[in-house]
Structures are given as C-alpha cells and as structure tokens.
Amino acid sequence: MEKYFAILSRCSLFAGVGREEMGLMLNCLGARERDIPKGEPVFLEGDPAGFIGVVLEGAVQVVRDDYYGTRSVLTVVQPGEIFGEAFSCAGVETMPVSAFALKGGKVLWLDCKRMLTVCSNACQFHNRMVANLLRAVARKNLALSRKIQFMSQRTTKEKIMAYLLDQAKAQGSSEFTIPHDRQALADFLGVERSAMSAEIGKLKRAGILDCKGPWFHLRDTVEEID
Amino acid sequence: MEKYFAILSRCSLFAGVGREEMGLMLNCLGARERDIPKGEPVFLEGDPAGFIGVVLEGAVQVVRDDYYGTRSVLTVVQPGEIFGEAFSCAGVETMPVSAFALKGGKVLWLDCKRMLTVCSNACQFHNRMVANLLRAVARKNLALSRKIQFMSQRTTKEKIMAYLLDQAKAQGSSEFTIPHDRQALADFLGVERSAMSAEIGKLKRAGILDCKGPWFHLRDTVEEID
DNA sequence: GAAAGTATGTTGGAAATCCAACAAAGGAGG
DNA sequence: CCTCCTTTGTTGGATTTCCAACATACTTTC
Fold first, then answer.
1. Closest Cα to residue B112, out of B96, B97, B90, B127?
2. Does at least one atom of strand D sit less than 7 Å from the CB of B201?
3. Interface mutation target, options B145, B159, B163, chain A, most CBs of A under 10 Å
4. On the CB side of A61, how many CA atoms lie within 13 Å of its CA?
C-alpha cells in the first residue's frame, strides 16, 4: 500500500492527509487492493453498492448498456480518481452501471459505510474526509453536467466540437489527448461511431482541427465548415 | 420562517432535525427568504456561487442556454428540494447555469460556506447536516445519470418511453403527471418539440399510452409501434 | 515478418430528425 | 362572449443520422 502513497495523496478523498495518517485511515476504511486484467469487469450492474473505488493503476470505464445492447459511456476514471462513490453515498442497494478496466491495473476498495460512520482512530481526519468526499461527489456532478451539455447539442459535429473545446480548456492547451478511443468517444457523446468519424474527417479537411489517434489539435482559425 | 417548518422538515438537508433545532440552524446558516415572480430568474449564469437554495413554494427550472440559444433543461426543483448545492460544494466561483421560477413562489437561501464550516451553536447537528448534504448531492448525481440514460437513447420515441417508464416507476403508478410542459420536456430530453409531439401522437394512436397535458397513462399492452 | 485481430475511415441507401410555418385548442383578461 | 396570447399538434421538405458493409491502417501474436 505504501508504494501508492504518491497516487493516493493526489486523490481528492485524501486531500490534506499526511503519510502517517494515510495508513491509519486506509486500515480504518477496510481498504483492500485488487488487480484487474485488461477488459475485465471491475464491477457489474446489479452488484451490491456501498463501496468507493480508487484507481491506482490503469484506467476504468464506467458504462451502462440498455436492452438493445447500446452502450453509454458515463465516464473514464484515471489513476488517483474515484468511482462508485455517488451510488454508495446515495444509499442505493445495487449498482445501476458496470465498469471495465481499459488497461490492466489496480484498484483500491474502500468501505463507504465506514467512511460515513465516526471511527475512534482518526476522527480528526474523518470530518475532513467527509468534506473531501462531498467535494468529490459535487465535482462528479459538474462532470455529468458537462457531459449533458455535449449531448444536448443538436448535431454530431456540434457535440464533438463542444467536447473538444471543453477538453482544450480543461487541459489548458489547444493540443491535448483524450482518454477515449473512437468507439468510446461516440458512446460517450451518444452518437454513431461511423457518423462521428465522418464528421471528424470533415473538420480535418476544413482545417478546424488536426488529430491522430487520441491526440487532437484545435486550430484557432474560425472558418465556415462545409 | 416558522410557517415553512412542514416543508423544511421534508427537505433532505434537514432530515432528522427537530423544530427547535431548525430555527437555530437556519439562523446559523444565514437563511433568508425571497419571493420570485413567475418567469423571473432565481439566479443567472455568471452569478457568484456559494449558496444553497431551498424551494418553499412554486417550482424552479434549472437551465443552460448555449451560444445558439438552444435551451437544455437540467432539472425542475419542487418544494422541499434544493438547488445550487452541487456547484457550491464543488467550489466553483460562478454559476454555469441559470434558474427561473416556473410558478411564482418562495425560495430560501442558505450560505454554503457556513454549512461546511463548524459552528459553535449546533455542532451536533452540523455533522448530520453535512451527511445529509452529501446524500442530497449524491442523489442529484443519480438524477443526472438517469437523464443521461434517457438522452443516450437513439430515437426520440425511445427517449420519451425511457423517461415515461422511469417516471411511472418513480411515482409507483402507470398513471402520473410530469413537471414539464411539452417544450420543457423536449428541452429536457434534448429533442425537437414538434418531432416529440408527433412521436407522442403515434404512441397514443398505437395504444401504448394516453395523455392529456401533464397527465400520462402507460398502458401495459406491448404491441408493435408503427 | 506473416497472419490474425482490432481500430479507424469511407460509403450509400433507409430512416429519423430538424426546422419553419401553420392550424387547432385552450386560458386569461377585459 | 370575444379577443389576445400561449401551448400543443400537424405537415412537408431539407438535412442529418443511422446502419451495415467494406477498405485500410495499425497491433499483437506467433
């Protein structure tokens, strides 16, 4: 566990927690590590809720598949970020979504009930952690609002551009990489992969952007798009 | 303030708070009441964040308008429910959305910073309130996830049905009323009002549902839709 | 380095959406 | 009761998306 202190100290949940307290708190929260091979489920729809997951290595994709098999990508969770916390904090019995490892990696499982119940060991940190958790859940809320903003756009092109402009702003540069492959980006924006691919092609030919794989560059020329 | 105790005691924020503590807490949170006439803004995009609003009477619609004037309805807040909490708890400076009063009504403003800072008067309730707040933010998270689930459907008809099935489940009956008019429902689902209207017409003729204004009835016949 | 498998780009026709404009149905106010 | 105004339903053409199928990289594996 000690080797992941660098990751965990960047985790919003442990903001302001020192190395020595970290160990106590992880113990208090019933932390256990688990390896997930690439492509394998981290948890599945219907699994009992009540946990908070922390990505230590790799990346985790949270998805919801409907009756027809249409997949909706809710979010991609990177090392140091958490998942499952909203469902657990809301008090639902079972998870309404599934999650899969994009790359092989490690996740840390924390018991949400222990987090919300006052403990005897590290109470001075407990309140801080609940405040951290509150902030983390609120931020995830903002992320969902942004996703809704993208999906609210009328055309595929507008959805793509809204997402890319947001990414450029978030990463502070007109050059950036995204955490989705093309299929996942389409599932994230709620559009067809092939149609999206065609629109990206148009945007490239129009000189609006350049891209190669996960790398994008938004040009600052503002011209008419075909 | 006293006259709204019935409403406030049903507010998730004050779960488990008695009548006498309520007054202390409201004072502690810097609560102030405000009347909003029908159609007027409750707050506007760009206004400073840091507050939590509680609807006492009427209803508040939270929206986001993009460059082109396309409106996206994020949520409708009913009496006893709260709004603005996610943005304030996430620590953003200014509100990224606007809100308008659907009917004339009253809202209560609470200072979010005071809620997150330990006070001297009612500390035993303070921790409970932070826990309540966490649960409320997490639940709003679920509501956003459900909205995304509706919007992820490919066709307008599927979006409508997904929403109506969810409402029927939430209200525990195949007959129910929705808090949106047709334009707002379209803005909520991210579709065109006229196209939605046409699809609802088809569903009625197909015997899938019946509706009149905000009232809907989902029939349990499962037949092919034209 | 060849082969198999995966990811991405491209295309064409069918289907659905968008948009604008109008018709019809209600409600509010005089 | 009438008029004005808002909301809801309807229609048709232009646009866009969806879907399936295929072509072309790029990766991985042996």
1. B90
2. yes
3. B145
4. 22
Angle, CA of B50, A126 and A132, to the nearest 5°: 35
As beta bridge partners, residue B177 has B215
Tokens of A30: 């019933």
Per the CB < 8 A criterion, the answer to whether B62 and B102 are in contact is: no
β-strand pairing of A82-83 with A51-65: antiparallel
What's the DSSP call for residue B192?
-
Q: What is the mean pLDDT of residues A199-222?
A: 88
Q: How far apart are CA B209 and CA A3, in angstroms?
A: 58
For residue A33, what are the β-bridge partners? A108
Report whether A88 contacts A54 (CB < 8 A).
no
- Tokens in use for A96? 């309404």
By the 8 A CB rule, do B120 and B42 touch?
no
For each of chain B's 226 residues, which pLDDT tens digit applies?
A: 567 888 999 999 998 888 888 888 888 888 999 999 988 899 999 999 999 999 999 999 999 988 777 899 999 999 999 999 999 999 999 999 999 999 888 999 999 988 887 665 545 677 788 889 999 999 999 999 999 999 999 999 999 999 999 999 999 999 999 999 999 999 999 999 999 999 999 999 998 999 999 999 998 754 433 3
* H/E element, B211: strand B209-212
For A178, phi then psi, to 5°, come to -110, 155
Which residue of A70, A139, A148 is in closest CB contact with B90? A139
Q: Which nucleotide is nearest to B197 (CA to C1')?
A: D9
* Helices (H) then strands (E): counts for chain A: 8, 9
Please give the structure tokens belonging to residue B122.
């009612």
CA A112/CA B4 separation, integer angstroms: 34
Q: Residue A49 above 70 pLDDT?
A: yes
Residues of A in contact with B151 (CB under 8 A): 148, 151-152, 190
